[in-house]
Write a structure and sequence with these properties.
This protein has 107 residues and is an alpha+beta fold. It is built from two helices and four strands; from the N terminus they run ββαββα. It has helices at 17-27, 72-93, and strands at 3-5, 12-14, 49-52, 67-70.
Length: 107
């Protein structure tokens, strides 16, 4: 399969991304599919883009079952949460040696 780089996100996408995106947009009627925690129902605001439910960085793929239309609010919120989770995961993997075992001159 051939791939292209999306200039807006820097993400590598399949060359047929525009047709995949169009099919998902039609399937979801161009409306946000994020389920609201307060009502348990889909948001159904005007969609802003097609989103990967499981992010590519976490093993998600471009299959239709892993794609959904999201409004700007929910997309921005989900992206922010994913970035915070990634930052937390990276921070948790970096560990300092125990306090008494640090080399001289370190904090």
């Amino acid at each position: 399969m051939a791939w292209i780089l999306d200039p807006s996100s820097g993400e590598v996408l399949p060359t047929n991304w525009s047709s995949i995106r169009s099919r998902i947009w039609r399937r979801d009627n161009g409306l946000c599919q994020k389920v609201r925690y307060d009502t348990g129902l889909p948001c159904l605001s005007e969609g802003a883009g097609v989103d990967h439910i499981v992010p590519r960085s976490q093993g998600g793929d471009h299959s239709h079952s892993n794609l959904q239309v999201l409004c700007k609010f929910h997309h921005d919120r989900k992206t922010g949460q994913e970035a915070a989770d990634g930052k937390r995961k990276r921070r948790d993997t970096v560990s300092l040696p125990p306090r008494g075992k640090r080399p001289l001159g370190s904090l």
